[in-house]
């Protein structure tokens, strides 16, 4: 029996459309500079709603107000025969304030940008994962689930803020 407990990594992402353009981040990854929605990991003691608001602020400096859940996505990365890593991604859509706040972005974020769906589609080789376009396509297809679909029960105490850059 394996002593290591398997658990998926839970992530959140934000779809923000303004005037036909989508808010994205260009970020450093092990595979080089990539495009992604504002996204990141759920932290201990957070609700998914709190996590997507926090991640969007940290990566773009925009205050995000979720309106609906676009979808839940599961992706597995790994080599055959290895356990690899599984991600469960909850993608929300919503709006942001008209201007970003004056604050530093997460260290891996190079810049924010607004791209049309066609511009994003044309840059598919730069997407962090195939979910970048899939989530936008689902959003454009009108896929929406009310926020109340995700229920949070017995959320424990919040974790203490970490010192230094986020890992």
UniProtKB/TrEMBL annotation:
This protein's record includes keyword Magnesium: yes
Cofactor(s) listed in the protein's UniProt record: Mg(2+)
Organism this protein belongs to: Paraburkholderia silviterrae
UniProt keyword terms in alphabetical order: Hydrolase, Magnesium
Name of this protein: Phosphatase NudJ
Pfam families: NUDIX
Coiled coil: none
Domain of life where this protein originates: Bacteria
Keyword Magnesium: yes
């Amino acid at each position: 029996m394996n002593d290591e407990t398997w658990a998926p990594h839970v992530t959140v992402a934000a779809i923000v459309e303004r005037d036909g353009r989508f808010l994205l981040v260009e970020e450093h990854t092990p595979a080089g500079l990539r495009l992604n929605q504002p996204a990141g990991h759920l932290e201990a003691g957070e609700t998914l709603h709190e996590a997507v608001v926090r991640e969007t602020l940290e990566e773009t400096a925009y205050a995000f107000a979720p309106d609906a859940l676009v979808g839940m996505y599961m992706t597995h990365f790994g080599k055959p025969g290895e356990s690899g890593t599984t991600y469960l991604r909850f993608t929300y859509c919503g709006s942001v304030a008209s201007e970003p706040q004056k604050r530093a972005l997460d260290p891996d974020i190079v810049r924010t940008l607004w791209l049309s769906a066609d511009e994003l589609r044309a840059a598919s080789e730069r997407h962090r994962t195939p979910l970048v376009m899939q989530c936008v396509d689902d959003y454009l297809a009108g896929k929406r689930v009310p926020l109340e679909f995700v229920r949070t029960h017995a959320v424990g105490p919040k974790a203490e803020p970490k010192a230094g850059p986020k890992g």
